[in-house]
Amino acid sequence: MNSRLFSIIRKEFIQIIRDKRALAIILIIPIMQLFLLGYAATNDVRNIPLAVYDQCRCAESRSLLDAYRAADYFQLAYSVSSEDEIRALIEGGKARAAIVIPPDYNTRLAKGDAQAAFILDGSDPTSASTAYSAALLIGQAHSTNLMMENLQRAGVNTDRLQQPLEIRTQVWYNPDLVSNYFMIPGVIGMILFAITSILTATSVVRERERGTIEQLIVTPIRPWELVVGKVTPYVILALINTFEVLALGHWWFGVPIRGSLTLIVATSGLLLLSGLGIGLFASTMANTQQEAMLTVWMTLLPSIFLSGFFFPLEAMPAVLRWFSAIIPLRYYLVIIRSVMLKGSGLSSIWMETLALFAFGVVILVAASLRFRKRLD
Question: What pLDDT does residue 214 have?
Fold first, then answer.
């Protein structure tokens, strides 16, 4: 190795070591990717929230529910008293499946022709596919156990004994379990969140790199006017991209838009608040565009893997599910998928909307205050 090449390598290492923030980000990102991919990148869905509508309330129906409770695929999270409650829970994203046991379940079971309905939320094909298979297998296994009990009591030949229970499944909102129905709404959220945060951060830092930020400061322009003027073009671009993805997703991929377009645009604006705040905050921490990009990616990586964009939250460890509660994109994905695929109104998603609004206001205000101090 010649001395010139060694000197260049040495100089580059010195620059990296001196820039401690960039060095920390470079070292932390691979570790973050390892943990996120190692724990979150799984389609092995467990603990699917299940709503139970038991109209029989007998020993036989409790035995059936115990079979579903024993398997770790389902969590008997809600006990309801009407199908309207089931619809409200599924539309609000609180339950992913429901089981309906008819009032004459025990008498029909004694005759050998009992049925129970299993309803699935098809807006998330990954969870729905797993729940579909698990529901059938658990129902068949329970039916087989009942058949063996009948055989032992009656001494009937197994060749002549029919299955006493049949589980009939229904898939709502996405009967064919088309994955695009799940992914396209998520892409809208990622575009809004990524574009606003990355472009806002780099545009402000670009002014600082070129030395033009000082020229803007000495002008009569107020700090809040500078902030609004810098971010407004990117808000418009993000909304344009939203309509583009909506149009292509609907007309090209056939993704339905069953809910209010006005509600989609309004909640998308709430997500923009968080994206803009993160971009501004990153711009106050970075001195170069590269640092700004790396800083924003520190927030984008958890948002991608822990928001339910790719992988169901139910498949993640409890610690990661708790951490995902502070990610604004998580709430937006519930909103956009519920409105587009289920036709949900504000009454079904008001909690997620309120959380998205609170996150956006807090992040944007904190970032604006820090940005103004940095200008001063």
Answer: 63
